[in-house]
Design goal:
Number of helices: 5
Order of helices and strands: HHEHEHEH
Number of strands: 3
Structural class: alpha/beta
Helix content: 25-40%
Strand content: 5-15%
Largest sheet: 3 strands, parallel
Radius of gyration: 16 Å
Distance between the termini: 39 Å
Shape: globular
Strand order of the largest sheet: 1-2-3
Length: 127
């Protein structure tokens, strides 16, 4: 991270995704609705440091649909871990991204052997 932002001190790193920051705002089209569950994620993996797995299993959830802004980080870490924890992970190929196209493409190739890859159009057609 320090190299990416050109700083020599961790204290100088930008506070990415800080509460109240513009990049943390949820677009109006996908705003949580009454009864929706929101879980704060502190690591790249949704399962680490949260009660996500317990909540999903208590609700009888078997399939998890992954989207995100860092395919090679949060999406891949979480989807891989989901598979090892007995969930059926689906990665939405047109709803994941990366700042690096090569890493994004490699991550999707890695995930293809562990998860289902599908477009949002394909997923919506199944709902």
């Amino acid at each position: 991270m320090m190299r990416r932002f050109g700083v020599d001190d961790p204290a100088k790193l930008p506070d990415f995704m800080a509460p109240g920051s513009p990049e943390r705002e949820i677009p109006e089209e996908v705003q949580p609705q009454a009864g929706d569950l929101q879980i704060e994620k502190a690591t790249a993996n949704i399962f680490l440091g949260t009660n996500f797995e317990l909540v999903m299993k208590n609700r009888g959830v078997k399939s998890l649909i992954f989207t995100g802004i860092a395919t090679e980080m949060g999406v891949e870490h979480s989807a891989r871990d989901a598979a090892t924890r007995g969930f059926y992970p689906v990665v939405v190929t047109d709803c994941v991204s990366s700042m690096n196209q090569d890493r994004h493409d490699r991550s999707l190739a890695n995930l293809a052997s562990l998860t289902t890859l599908a477009s949002s159009k394909e997923i919506l057609a199944c709902l």
